[in-house]
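Standup notes, structure subgroup. Blocker cleared on the PRP input:
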Amino acid sequence: MTEIVPEVLISEEQIRNKVAELGGRISADYTDVDDLILVGILKGSFIFLADLARELTIPRSVDFMALSTYGDSESTDTDGAVRMIMDLRRNITGKHVIVVEDIVDTGYTLSYLLRNLAARQPASLKTCVLVEKPERREVFTQIDYLGFSIPDVWVVGCGLDWAERFRTLPYIGVVRPED
Ligand code: PRP
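Run returned:
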């Protein structure tokens, strides 16, 4: 396999600072909440979720969902069809929920998730996203806590992959299709 070193787009230090800032904001906003549930969307969110959860100074628990997109395109942009392959373990009715995502691209995944979770009647439902690509957005999605807006380039690291590679890279890097 050829050695590819993704070019740094967002450094490890920038990410660490941003995650600390987001953790501080969420801890302040939920200071009176004792049943916050962070919902990580597998696979991509697992590193961001782990880092964010450890920055919170308030009681919190974590749960996970896994989604699959129909077809094998680079994202959900063929028709926006999203399917749940693993649901939460816990009932979220009456609980405070923050959905944690590594990336919002077209927005179909997060908008599906918000519709799905809102139907379960949580006490509140917000979203925390590490990176978004505004140029790629096809549907509106609510992002309450955002790390970084980035251009339309293929990014890896911090949970983001390129054919399952680079998820554990400590920075967000760019890979080009010709790499
Ligand atoms: C990524 C990401 C989001 C989705 C966003 O998941 O984690 O769930 O794509 O794309 P959208 O805004 O266009 O819907 P991916 O399908 O790459 O799966 P993974 O998290 O398992 O890598």
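Discussed briefly. The beta strands are 7-10, 36-42, 60-69, 82-86, 96-104, 124-132, 145-149, 154-156, 172-175.
Next: hand off to the docking folks.
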